[in-house]
Write a structure and sequence with these properties.
Length: 283
């Protein structure tokens, strides 16, 4: 029997969009996202945004857009900190959930369905003071150059990019091994061909199965990301590497911290878990 045909790179958006459309209901009903908590507590912000607050600073009146916003929990959190927020995602099902959450929480958030690379045409060029991208977003994009060009196009002169992401070293690690050694298995640098995954369930506490289980993902080294932003005319203003990440990235080898973050339980200083990057479009 011949092996199954691997979809071409050109199919990545169709495959990934179908996967995220299906994840929307699973994630929206999960305690992992806990969307009902945002309705019950008008002051609640997500753990991810709470972690970011010292570097985010005062957002009062800031015109912001959250790229790849999914269910909008972080988008809503940024709005609760004073920003005037828009959200963009390619998944219609995710945006349906995001709009319902914002409505139930009494927040005005402008949501748009589009691919990230189309964001400037959909939302308007030079329209935002802040472009925000959260954890677990960049791995779904094949090219950092096009992403960086989009970010620069969205920002007004003086506007800034704020991104916190899983570290590319973390993404390159092999699955946990019996000997607990950390081994680099997958590409660190951006490559043309994607990593093709077929995973029957999502990363939440739900055991519901996915029908659209095949996805395409890419890693991007720090130099790929920073270099693309510099080439797009952005100026780097901050880069911090963290010894924690917002999910149990290496099951069985991590401990949960008081702030909900997860950290390698054995010598965590060996591993850059995540990073925060900030850049501005020059005036």
């Amino acid at each position: 029997m011949s092996p199954p045909e691997v979809p071409s790179v050109a199919d990545y958006r169709t495959l990934n969009q179908a996967n995220w459309d299906e994840r929307a209901a699973i994630h929206g009903d999960s305690s992992f996202y806990g969307t009902d908590r945002y309705v019950r507590d008008p002051d609640l912000v997500s753990d991810v945004v709470q972690f970011d607050r010292p570097l985010l600073g005062d957002l009062t009146g800031v015109r912001g857009v959250h790229l790849q916003c999914h269910l909008g929990t972080d988008t809503l959190s940024l709005a609760r900190l004073g920003a005037v927020m828009s959200g963009l995602d390619f998944s219609a099902a995710s945006l349906e959930r995001a709009r319902a959450l914002a409505g139930a929480a009494g927040m005005q958030i402008d949501y748009h369905q589009a691919d990230v690379y189309e964001a400037a045409d959909v939302l308007g060029r030079s329209s935002f003071d802040l472009v925000y991208t959260g954890v677990g977003a960049l791995c779904w994009l094949p090219r950092m150059k096009d992403w960086a060009d989009t970010v620069a196009a969205l920002l007004r002169p003086g506007g800034r990019l704020f991104i916190r992401e899983g570290h590319p070293v973390l993404w390159a690690l092999a699955d946990p091994r019996p000997d607990r050694a950390l081994a680099l298995e997958y590409p660190y640098f951006e490559v043309t061909e994607p990593q093709v995954w077929d995973e029957p369930t999502s990363y939440t506490d739900s055991d519901r199965s996915l029908t659209a289980s095949v996805t395409h993902q890419w890693n991007h080294g720090l130099a790929d990301i920073v270099g693309s932003l510099l080439d797009a005319g952005m100026q780097l203003t901050g880069l911090v590497e963290h010894q924690s990440v917002p999910w149990e990235a290496l099951p069985g080898q991590m401990r949960q911290l008081h702030n909900g973050e997860w950290q390698l339980d054995d010598r965590p200083e060996r591993l850059p878990h995540s990073y925060t990057l900030q850049a501005v479009r020059p005036r």
